[in-house]
Design a protein that fits this description.
The complex is a heterodimer of chains A (166) and B (562). With 166 residues, chain A is α+β, with helices and mostly antiparallel strands. Chain A has four helices and nine strands. In chain A, β2 and β3 form a beta hairpin. The mean pLDDT of chain B is 97. Classes of the chains: A alpha+beta (166), B alpha/beta (562). Bound molecules: thiamine diphosphate and magnesium ion.
Chain lengths: 166, 562
Amino acid sequence: MPKLMQHTITVLVDNKPGVLARISGLFARRGFNIESLAVSITDDPTVSRMTIVASGDDSTLDQINKQTSKLIDVIKLVDYSQIPIIERELALIKVKAEPVHRAEIMQIVDIFRAKIIDISVTSFTIEVTGGLDKVDAIENLLRPYGIMEVVRTGKIAMARGAHTAI
Amino acid sequence: MKMNGANALIQSLVDQGVDMVFGIPGGVMIPIYDALYGREDLKNMLMRHEQGAGHAADGYARATGKVGVCFATSGPGATNLVTGLANAHMDSIPVLAVTGQVRTTSLGKDAFQEADTFGITMPVTKHNFLVSDVNDVPRTIAEAMYIAQTGRPGPVLVDVPMDVSLAEVDYQPITEVKMRSYSPHIDIDEAMVEQAAALINEAKRPVLYVGGGVITSGANEELTRLSEKTHILVTNTLLGKGAISEYHPHSLGMLGMHGTAYANHAVNECDLLIAVGARFDDRVTGKLAAFAQRAKVIHIDIDPAEIDKTVQTTVPVLGDCKEALAMLVEKVQPREETDWNKKIMQWKREFALQCPANEGALQPQCVIAKISDMTKGEAIVVTDVGQNQMFSALYYSTTKPRRWLSSGGLGTMGYGFPASIGAQVGRPDLPVFCICGDGGFQMTLQELAAAVEHKLPIKIILLNNQYLGMVRQWQELFWNGRYSGVDISVQPDFKMLAEAYGAEGMRVKHPDEVDGALARAMEINDRPTLIDFQINPQENVFPMIPAGQSIEEMMVNRPKGS
Ligand SMILES: Cc1ncc(C[n+]2csc(CCOP(=O)(O)OP(=O)(O)O)c2C)c(N)n1
Ligand SMILES: [Mg+2]
């Protein structure tokens, strides 16, 4: 089995109806795996930016780049596997918070520089931002208390330094 | 100038140089057909099924090099077009489809004859548009035409809701298309061409493997010059027929599953494979691990996504085949014939294609070879899919580009006849032969009405074996002769059928009737002629390399004992 790699790309696309369907359709049709996908508009409202984390062997990743770039609505594709980047993901985690555990959970939240943004008699909702590893780590640490619900935005990324994708 | 969206659409097409569309109207297309009414500069050829319209546009495009345009109404009209679009997509043919759509206010409400044409056709087009504002009509048509015919060509669909057709717009012709997200031109990297030339100069056993990209880019002369300067022999794909004349001593004919034994041997033993405008389709390579194992690979292609897709390339040259070959011809050293040439020529003699003895039964190979001789390979030949297609590919020698039209990637039965209509409309000056099977012809034969109406003198060569022959062949060879679902001997009298439509009908049962029937067909110039050739039903196509296997398993002739 060829080695499966994870691979982050940023795709700048024309902000037109159907463009998300084009990308997801391409991935589905060609059997490419999407690990995460984050989409929003940019400072230019006619341009949307997608950050895609895909996985596959080298030749699949090469095909993902080429086939995606080929889509007519794709303005530019930047492959982040070779350059230093900053990557972030935001997660909201709703966890059971029995009175006996509250202090412990708050300590974990502190250590991760996360925030408790909502609270009820039996639960905390925690906001955490960071790299994928950090989000995974806090999720794992909170699991023993009883995770009730998690939502993650998917990774967004940017090159370090003055480089831009645009 | 003020006009409605439908008129703006038609005017945009005219401004883009379109003078012929193939289509069928329907409720939401009435405004567009109304805009066509009485126009002399843009004619609609009324087809009898939208699949026919799609294939006719495709055939027109292949024969002329221009964009073929087809129209269909919303819902069922659009879904009927899908096969034509998928076919053009697989073979990179520039087609523009315009479909009517329900009003924008009804979209998504399951309105009468609503289908999600935009969604359905996304995976079978190079690009598609849903026009929601009448002001976008002229630009959308201009962009669609531009996308269809530039870069690696392909079909583009424009879906036009009825209210957009009816709304008013101040029409301004679009003279230039620039899209920030699409820039098809590629500047060829000279360094890569130099590396390619170096590999060619070093190679002991090079072979050229050329595909549809050579036809599309009009690179046939450059290719022939390269082959003549270096004495490198050329094998073509199904879509590459005509890239170099198959009568040229350097031509090895087609390679692959039903390729000639000598082309396959040459590719198998080469040390350098020079792929030009070809994409290493599985019908060409068979078992990938065994394909051209000893060879370095040069891959010249306009589509970056084809590089390294299935076969690892040693030297890629990205760009238009014509430009790339022109550069390459200058940079390679001339070379004379080598032992390698002699070896291939030896194979060419040893494995020369032969027409089987007729012995009373009519053999399809002989019919095709007759047509090839009679036309000197200069006619336009349009095939359907199946044994008829492969017999034609092997026994008809194509001499020029755009004179061989066949459904390659999709393998669409029913393609041949409507595509030949498009070809004859685009090239009224050339004889057009439609070679098809009794199965495939019955999938789109209703277009006889359109061909008769327009007095198209297409020669329909029906290779009638009373079987879905290619499937029967596989069942005979690989499934112990369990003939399941292939007997189509209950069929119309094709001679009478042709006559019923107002075409000429003939029937040929004996080998000695072939010449006379073909000669008569050549004389008829005001209507289609159908010749029902009642061929040997048991005849199979050889050579054959079974699917997914290698040249080791090639059957050059019918295996003994069967
Ligand atoms: C639309 C479509 N349906 C089914 C097939 C599968 N298929 C490939 S060849 C073939 C038989 C074709 O029979 P016929 O048209 O009589 O041609 P022959 O092989 O006998 O020359 C079939 C069914 C196909 N290629 N296209
Ligand atoms: Mg048949």
